[in-house]
Amino acid sequence: MTPRKQRMVFVGVILAGVTLATVLALTAIGRNIMYFYSPSQINAGEAPDDIIIRVGGLVVDNSVQRIDDGLTVEFTLTDTKEEIDVRYTGILPDLFREGQGIVAIGRLNGEGAVIADEVLAKHDENYMPPEVAEALEAAKQGGQMTLPNPHEKPTSGNPYDT
Amino acid sequence: MIPELGHFALILALCLALIQSIVPLVGAQLNKPAWMQIAAPATACQFGCLILSFICLTYAFINKDFSVLYVAQNSNSALPLEYRISAVWGAHEGSLLLWVLILAGWSYAVSCFSGSLPQTFASRVLAVLGLISVGFLLFTVLTSNPFERLIPAAADGRDLNPLLQDPGLIIHPPMLYMGYVGLAVPFAFAIAALLEGRIDAAWTRWTRPWTTVAWVFLTVGIMLGSWWAYYELGWGGWWFWDPVENASFMPWLMATALLHSLAVTEQRSTFKAWTLLLAIFGFSLSLLGTFLVRSGVLVSVHAFATDPERGVFILIFLTIVIGSALTLYAWRASTVTSSGRFALVSRETLLLINNVLLVVATATILLGTLYPLLLDALNLGKISVGPPYFNSVFIPLMLPLLFFLGFGPIARWKQDQPTSLLIRIYKTAILSILLGLSFILLAAGPASFTVTLSICLAFWVVFGTLASLKLRIQAKDPLKSLPRLPRGFYGMMIAHIGVAVFTIGVTLVSVYEQQADVRMAPGDTHELNNYLFQLDRVEEVPGPNYQAKRAIVSVYKENKLVTTLTPEKRFYPSQAQPMTEAGIHPSLFRDIYVSMGEPLDNGAWAMRLYHKPFIRWVWLGPLLMAVGGLLAASDKRYRLEVRQRKPLATAVSSRSSA
């Protein structure tokens, strides 16, 4: 092959590769992204109820309840302003506990509750998922943000106001 | 006193790195041998200082010096000795110290073996490595000093994150860093080549083993991480497409492309500019990975501290390194011209396709990793891109790669006849389709088209590799010719078979694994894939720095006891953190995996049970790739080259022209 032809092959193969990648990536990313919503946004009706979403917040104290088979858990998430119920069947992560910031991945069930396929809590007791931290901040509307201490029993009605 | 000594050694290392980078660089430009000669001793001294600094930090950990902030944050008086040592790189500051230590180690190794290189070239390589070192040492000293004192000293430390208290985690980070940082060597070679304005045969023969060794470390590091996640995170997954995993996987893909492109550059003296670009991209992705992990922009187990100052520093450093490397490339790449010609049907074309597929795969992973960060930065909403995206993009790109891999080594360099190539491969094609289909139909069970195709392609890679061996054997004396084949060839064979093994493992485990989350009280049984799991009892077990609840689970098959597993739920009081320790019965063809969830009422526990076929192959494959890589890197011709090159150095380095 002449250098010119060789260059054409080079360019051709690369162009084909890039086209393939673009098509793949665009179709895949369109179908597989998950948006994050806070309990306030969901209760305001901003979240669609036909696709998988991420919901984050703090697990409300004394809200965790096991039902029927022992593996299904119901709990309430809050961004300190609004609350939303979450139902999950399966094994919860090690760091799931009341007062902890967590992210649930799942769908809305049409009655304002989230049916989660997955619950994420991070592997550090001081860690707060950034989305949750921001959602809390937004709910506080610029007010001073105080995070609850998961080891401290709340004294007042709302554990998140100090 | 010891921590101050370590801090001092660290600052001294920074000064030496400055000398190592600036003086030889200027010297090479002005052609002053005395200036260039400084590179090697400066490198050695910098390495020595960093070893000293690292020893000081280790000493502080071993002696439980809680007056050092970093030690107090990541150690505890009850922590066993081996974890006190591995805690040195258990968090941000110390792992950064390990990073620069390893970089200095690689630089020192380069300076030891660079005696046969032209002096301007060797000193430029060391200078570039020195510049990278300056950046990271500045970062360490200015934003992440591991020797910072805590006054008054803490009574006891906060302890190492329990997840990291594991043998796998002792070796995973150093291996991974060896790989990450090792890619700095081909990068430095590429930059030096661009400064010199030429690439010759000696350059590629010199760069290849270094790249291969870095790639081997990266392979092993990623494999160990995956294995660790499997048994330590307690949920039986081995790859999550977590941004940090992607951050290590992207440089790996790029380094794989670079290895193959280097092969073409060495054998056929073509693809030169492309090879340089891949070397630059490989290390750039390493740096990007470091940025993603260290800056706290990511949500991950690996994200240690969220400190915007650090993120900004690395981002600036990243921009300077990548920006200047690419500018240099744009300016000088035209001086590096390829001389080899090849036809459309040739091994060169196949390797070009390999490279394009690997680079495209890297790009799609990069997109999936950065897209959420970008949207967030632009306030366009918080999204996350999960495994479905990566699977649906990555797998369709890897299947054609396997297809071309199957006959790449059989195709001839420069030009091949399509018909004769077909004759060489049709038997392996038929054989692999037959075997793949019968495997699915007889052994595995119903499967989708993609699964069947993957299995057929895995066989195709194995038989193609064996066929390439057959072509290399002389007909007359087959047994005698075997030991005479170069080690590089055997390395390639083993690595390619590793790819096939990995493919089989991934395909089978993701399609045929079975899982059950169940509630089990002592005495309860559950059946999964012909295995009967029985929870015998749950007992309390004290550990050195934790309390554990241990379940005794007997596993039966056809009424015969297969194994007794002891998964644990541990509680670390120092961090108020529970940890799941899985019980695993491994074997070559299947793993049985049990982990404990949370306690339920009446002494019952939530338990997760798994039957995972062929999961070991997922790590066996990369292990074979690493063995292949080591064999290839130790090929005789690289060692001969060192001996022969001295008289040739001037002759070979004549500028290659178009």
Can you offer a commentary on this structure?
The complex is a heterodimer of chains A (162) and B (658). Chain A contains 3 helices and 7 strands; from the N terminus they run H-E-H-E-E-E-E-E-E-H. By secondary structure, chain A is α+β, with helices and mostly antiparallel strands. Chain A folds into 2 domains: 1-33; 34-140, OB fold (Dihydrolipoamide Acetyltransferase, E2P). In chain A, strands 2-4-5-7-6 form a 5-stranded mixed β-barrel. In chain A, helix 2 links the parallel strand 1 and strand 2. Chain A starts with a helix and ends in a 22-residue tail after the last helix. The model of chain A is unreliable at 142-162 (pLDDT under 50). With 658 residues, chain B is of the alpha+beta class. Chain B contains 21 helices and 11 strands. In chain B, the strands form 2 sheets. In chain B, strands 3, 4, 5, 6, 7 and 8 form a 6-stranded antiparallel β-sheet that branches. Chain B has a 4-stranded antiparallel β-sheet with strand order 2-11-10-9. Chain B is globular and about 80 Å long. At the A-B interface, helix 1 and strand 1 of A face helix 14, strand 1, helix 15, strand 2 and strand 8 of B. Strand 1 of chain A pairs antiparallel with strand 1 of chain B.
